[in-house]
Amino acid sequence: MTAFSTLNVLPPAQLTNLNELGYLTMTPVQAAALPAILAGKDVRVQAKTGSGKTAAFGLGLLQQIDASLFQTQALVLCPTRELGGSGGR
């Protein structure tokens, strides 16, 4: 498994938070998708529930948000209740 720190773009505070939440290494889905997501590319990921898709997209989204701007910067669509539950955490 690959550590999140190998991505070399996540801020130290975010890496600390990931570690505190128990996310020590990326899942195979995250390792495959995150480099493209963080590079700003459009990606489509198809994998089983619990594979880390939501975290991968969430981390990519956080990198694009400017916390100093008090305005809508992103929209997350969750097509099912199952995804809505994981997307809201």
TrEMBL record:
**InterPro entries documented for this protein:** DEAD/DEAH_box_helicase_dom (IPR011545), DEAD_box_RNA_helicases (IPR050547), Helicase_ATP-bd (IPR014001), P-loop_NTPase (IPR027417)
Q: Name one GO molecular function term.
A: RNA helicase activity
Signal peptide residue numbers: none
Among Pfam families, the record links this protein to: DEAD (PF00270)
* Enzyme Commission number: 3.6.4.13
Broad class of enzyme this protein falls into: hydrolase
**Keywords (A to Z) from UniProt:** ATP-binding, Helicase, Hydrolase, Nucleotide-binding
Q: Which domain of life is it from?
A: Bacteria
- Cellular compartments per GO CC: cytosol; ribosome
Q: Which GO terms describe its biological process?
A: response to cold
Indicate the segments forming the Helicase ATP-binding domain, all copies. Answer: 34-89
Question: In its UniProt entry, what is this protein called?
Answer: RNA helicase
Give the gene symbol: dbpA_2
